[in-house]
Amino acid sequence: MHISYDFKGQVALITGAASGMGLATARAFAQAGAAVALADVSEAALQKAVDDITLAGGTAIGVLCDVSDEAQVAAMVERAVATFGRLDAAFNNAGIQVPAAEIADQSVQDYDRISAINQRGVWACMKHEIAQMRKQGSGAIVNCSSIGGLTGRALLAAYHGTKHGVIGLTRSVALEYADRGIRVNAVCPGPINTPMVSSMLERNMLSMDDLLRDVPMRRLGRGEEIADAVLWLCSSGSTYVTGQALAVDGGFTVY
Ligand code: NAD
Which residue of 41, 86, 138, 209 is surrounded by the most CB atoms within 10 Å? Predict the structure, then answer.
């Protein structure tokens, strides 16, 4: 059985929505009846995602936005609210990986780039989304962390640092708004079959054996399995849940 949600009359904003789990989540929100604003830096892929959702009967707009630029993030939220009138749910998902390296060999440029997108981007998205949700007195936000937010991994310190940071932001902002109708949670995906992982495999940053060795379910997850968790965290099925970092990881963090 697949659980279905009803987001009719609601508005959802998804960053990094042109690919991978962001795209799967945008599709799932649209299928559940939400009007969706998809944001990404990749113009062609974004347009295709919006066209596909619209063709399937959904209501969607695309917003070009680099989440590492606060002015663009502010404009993204403004555009979603100007188009659809409100903002009920947000999945702050945009993120990147940088080449694996020992910390002694890593460039400060790589560190700053990944921090600006994965961590400051989540901060900027929450800042502007919550400014709208605070006026409404309601809203639900899910930030994309990772099993890298719950564990360490040699050679990936910069990435894991940003994903730990996302959980710290999530918990603290959840406390700020817990009694004002706004819930803030994080998802922590394990290895998911998306273009990000394919590219790490292609560049030999990791092997499939490396990826699956510590996954008790011995398979990659699917973007749709992350979408299911995000929709639940934004739905009326989770109204007493805030400040949590939910691992969706085939059991990775259970060892
Ligand atoms: P993906 O590469 O398939 O998709 C990421 C999307 O984000 C792309 O469409 C890309 O254009 C967009 N993007 C990149 N930089 C951006 C920016 N500055 N502003 C706006 N959009 C930007 O990756 P994915 O695997 O779907 O990853 C999505 C999120 O999940 C990331 O935050 C990633 O760190 C996290 N994550 C992925 C995995 C995994 O195994 N795939 C596991 C844990 C966490």
Answer: 41
